[in-house]
Amino acid sequence: MIPLFIGLLAGFDESALAIQRLITEQLGRDVDIAVFYQLLRDNIGFVTPDQAKIWRDRCVQEAEKRVDAIVSGKHRGSYRKAALILVALCELQLYNGDAEPLKILTKYKEKLP
């Protein structure tokens, strides 16, 4: 669910390539991402700024828990997915105009040298 929430919070922007990749992997099959995104945009309704902040904070929290579980459990086959989740979070922060979109990468780089 994390990839879809990240996509939702980023407005299903086709230029967010890491988010696209996560969603495509989540679906587990070949999907025309442009058609899929348009379908989602047409049907998501309105997300208030307060809802978006709550969802964004929760999404970041859950994504960090997943990354921590992958790395602390030494699931080496999933390290690529952990990195992709972190990059997708950076894309989300860029989309939302965060002043420090790479902060989460710096945090994990320091945490996991």
Question: How would you describe the overall organization of this protein?
Answer:
The structure is a single chain. With 113 residues, the protein is mainly α. It has one domain (2-111). Helices cover 71% and strands 0% of the residues. Helix 1 (2-9) runs parallel beside helix 5 (79-95) and helix 2 (17-27) packs across helix 5 (79-95).
Strand content: under 5%
Helix content: over 70%
Number of strands: 0
**How many DSSP H or I helices?**
6
Radius of gyration: 14 Å
Structural class: mainly alpha
Q: Oligomeric form of this entry?
A: single chain
Average of pLDDT: 83
How many separate structural domains? Answer: 1
Shape: globular
Main sheet record: none
What series of H and E elements makes up the topology?
HHHHHH
| Gap between N and C termini | 28 Å
- Poorly predicted residue ranges: none
Quick summary of this structure?
The protein is mainly alpha-helical. The protein is built from six helices and no strands.
What are the salient characteristics of this protein?
113 residues, mainly alpha, 71% helix
Write the layout of secondary structure elements.
Layout: H1 2-9, H2 17-27, H3 33-43, H4 49-72, H5 79-95, H6 103-111
